[in-house]
Write a structure and sequence with these properties.
about 190 residues
């Protein structure tokens, strides 16, 4: 899976023009695609929920300076055992330009995660949980054109999930790690 993503990224990076600037100030929007692993833990069990599934999302934000921005993300990880999981994050983002085209970034902030479905198609094993937590991430941006950046990064989300719609106690610790590539347009 990652070879299919990294090969086109390498081709884009090697053929990009030198006129672009990474992490320009102002608003931007983008889309990402990658790989996710989520570990769910409860009092009496551990379960690796979605090892090596596709993760995809949309992101947008505003770079106030070349070193400081604010970013929001809305995404979903692939379905496994008939359970769907979505997430949203809001993070301040710190950037460190290395030259006109490359910059490193780091971010940390708040995360919301929701999961819903019938585990392994068993009706009585319905899961409907959501919760708040924190997220952190890091990566690299590369400007491929005047208004277009390509990024590669890793995001980590840690949340406490609780039952959303019934009285039964189901409290889960959810830890998700995502490796991704993204493309964004700077306005």
């Amino acid at each position: 899976m990652m070879k299919k993503i990294l090969l086109p990224l390498a081709l884009v990076l090697t053929t990009a023009s030198g006129a672009a600037l990474a992490d320009q100030t102002g608003p931007y929007v983008g889309a990402s695609l990658g790989n996710a692993t989520t570990d769910l833990k409860a009092d009496n069990w551990d379960y690796n929920y979605d090892e090596n599934v596709v993760a995809y999302g949309l992101y947008g934000g505003y770079n106030f300076t070349e070193n400081l921005g604010l970013e929001a993300t809305l995404g979903q990880t692939g379905e496994k055992d008939n359970i769907k999981k979505g997430y949203a994050t809001l993070t301040p983002r710190v950037m460190m330009p290395l030259n006109d085209q490359f910059s490193l970034f780091a971010k940390a902030g708040v995360a919301y995660v929701a999961a819903d479905g019938n585990w392994q198609d068993i009706e009585r094993a319905h899961i409907d949980v959501d919760g708040w937590g924190w997220t952190a991430g890091a990566g690299v941006n590369f400007a491929v054109a005047e208004h277009v950046d390509v990024r590669a990064g890793i995001d980590y989300l840690s949340t406490d999930l609780k039952n959303a719609d019934n009285d039964k106690d189901l409290n889960l610790d959810s830890e998700t790690t995502m490796y991704y590539v993204g493309v964004n347009y700077n306005f």
